[in-house]
Amino acid sequence: MTPTIDPELLRCFRSVARLGRFKAAADHLGRSPASVSMQVRRLEDLVGARLLDRDNRHVALTPAGDALLADAEALLALNDRILRRLDRGSGQGPLIRLGLPDEYAARIIGDALAMVTADHPGIELTVETAPSGRLAEIFAAGRLDMAVMVAPLVAGDGANARIDPVWAGARHLPPTPPDDAAQAGRDATPLPLALYDAGCPYRQAAAQALAAMGRPWRPVLISPSNAAVDACIEAGLAVGVIDRRRLTPSLREIGADWRLPPLPAHGLHLHRASRARGAAFDALEAGMRHAFAGMGRI
């Protein structure tokens, strides 16, 4: 008889391949790392090939594992689709309305949402991106079930990840302001800034810090788009405030050289409405917390 592959073996393999660690896959699947490892070894025995290269910290796909992953995705999708059709009494899964800051949306979507929706195909998910201030308003109005927001970091406030905003400028900017305007007080040439839209905590922090030192500024760009702000700073049209970990080769930190005021640390906070209950919400929260841990902060 032709052997068959247990979908749970493929599900464990896919989780390890995507998340890069057995511990992370175990947390995501609600299993022990030893159980996940055993399932992957069973799959390797079944297909007759090593699928993952392992070390003490990470795993990587072998050529055989890379070839199997796409087929595993397709087979799991078909398996889940058949089960949904057969289980007509279960109906559609819950609608989850999630709010994300634009700056972190790509990371969270890639690290958390794709895995959660793959393993919980009944979930109906809608995502809205907006500045954190706007997300707070929408969440308070009851139009979001879960939301990730950036806010100044306060000890003991339950932040899920630490963010260190810094003054950023294009790599080709001069070491100091051309007119050394930072020493000129309120008579200085206004500092050109690329800012996020109203409701962004970075924008508020920058404005307050500059006002405290008496440094004038002018907006060159105001946009809800993370890409637009980055492009304006990289082009040298303005300076701005971004997460230090998001500095690209085209950007450098300029706060000390340009004698700009220090900025307070911020935190990334996950908010979940009291009505957002059930396994699907639990899985989404666990996936996002894993994404936060992968950022290397807190």
TrEMBL record:
<dbReference type="Pfam" id="PF00126">
    <property type="entry name" value="HTH_1"/>
</dbReference>
<dbReference type="InterPro" id="IPR036390">
    <property type="entry name" value="WH_DNA-bd_sf"/>
</dbReference>
<keyword id="KW-0238">DNA-binding</keyword>
<protein>
    <submittedName>
        <fullName>Transcriptional regulator</fullName>
    </submittedName>
</protein>
<dbReference type="InterPro" id="IPR005119">
    <property type="entry name" value="LysR_subst-bd"/>
</dbReference>
<keyword id="KW-0804">Transcription</keyword>
<dbReference type="InterPro" id="IPR050176">
    <property type="entry name" value="LTTR"/>
</dbReference>
<comment type="similarity">
    <text>Belongs to the LysR transcriptional regulatory family.</text>
</comment>
<keyword id="KW-0805">Transcription regulation</keyword>
<feature type="domain" description="HTH lysR-type">
    <location>
        <begin position="5"/>
        <end position="62"/>
    </location>
</feature>
<dbReference type="InterPro" id="IPR000847">
    <property type="entry name" value="LysR_HTH_N"/>
</dbReference>
<dbReference type="InterPro" id="IPR036388">
    <property type="entry name" value="WH-like_DNA-bd_sf"/>
</dbReference>
<dbReference type="Pfam" id="PF03466">
    <property type="entry name" value="LysR_substrate"/>
</dbReference>
